[in-house]
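Subject: Rx N-terminal domain-containing protein structure
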Amino acid sequence: MDAVLSAVASDLISRFISFLLQRSQQAHRAAAAAATPRLQRLLLRARTVVEEADGRRIANHGMLLQLKQLRDSMYRGFYLLDTSQACLPRQHELQAQIIDELEAVLDDMKEFLLLLMQCPPVARQPYSAYLFMERCMFGRRMEKEHIVSFLLNPCSSLDVLPVTGPFYIGKSTLVEHACREEAVQRSFPNILRLSSDDLNDLAAGSDSAMDGHKLGPRSLMVVELGQDTDLAAWGKLHQSLRRRSDGTKAILISRMDDRVSGLGTVQALRLTRLRREEYWYFFRVLAFGSADPYDHHPSLVPIAERIAAEIDGASFMMTGAITRALRANLSAEFWARALGYVRKSMRMHARVFGVDPRAAPARSGERYLSYIHGVKQDCPPILCYRRYKTRSLEGDAASKMLTGDVFAAARSVRCGEKFDFVTQSHIPPYYYYVSQWVVEKRKPAHRGNNCPKRTKLPNNPCHGDL
């Protein structure tokens, strides 16, 4: 009898607990369903303010800080709305936190909006959202204004601002955007952009170099420091120019943070990768455009989330190339294949160099490896073993390079063939990026050999530029 009573009591308790859990889950589902439209309305308000602010020139540092807070909250809201895989209680809790945060930030924007109406508009073509993002510096508003402020402040001697950060983080692009501001153009009629060769020639006192780079009054020098010899050359040039009192300034661009930061007369500006929520918003708009992806392509959102997580902001170039290819073919099968390409590329890089390109961009940026398959299912693997950038392409070298979509270019390649592929940046300074590829030769499979030999890459596969 005791055993029967114990079993009945245990069953009743189990059913009661299951009933409570079910009721709790239903309550959380109802709360989450009610909170989601509210969060969407707040995100729409935040996006409206951000887009209006992007169309105006804001010089007030406090307003820029407020705008940054609103952006951060907006990015977290979109990230939670699109990618949250948490359990229902946790998801409802996060939604409540984001809603409270967005409401508080938007309520504090009343003075901001009044002041914003007094800011002059920025003249630009009416691009759609994703086209405008492809042609602007996303997520670098405060950094750009920092550089502009440095350039417009008066100085009595040669002022130097170091701009540092990992490979392909957008240092040269950010500086170029700042230099193209009308106020900067008026203040500096002579803007010199010096590469490593130019810098070494100037430091050596070459007459031909000086003829091509006249340092008149109120000159701005944008100097790229890529190696130790550049540091020595800049030291000599700076020694000869540091007594100038004609308003000349210099910006040093380098990945060598520790050694270059101390060369400035002001605190160095260091660029870091976008946060995951910020990068997801960037990837989302480039891949789907300004429309809500859940209204048109809901099945593609989870695949886009996994692709963005694989790249994780490691490369703006890769992001641009992949999102352009994705927009051209809105099929789940193609997007799933693209996800496979990205995963293989990341794993191949880590296997060959022993460094995850996402975890240590400062180190892995010097060495680059990519791995894709062609459009045809039977196309052999193609390895990208070297990449560099250049300001211009000349003569026969340019005519021999492939252009267009690299996936499409893979249709006509042959096993063992090497080819160069060139793309041009969509935003200033419009660098050309040249990638060198080799088509892997097919090897017969041998039974019992589970460890195929690694493909031998051409000489000097690990070279990279700034």
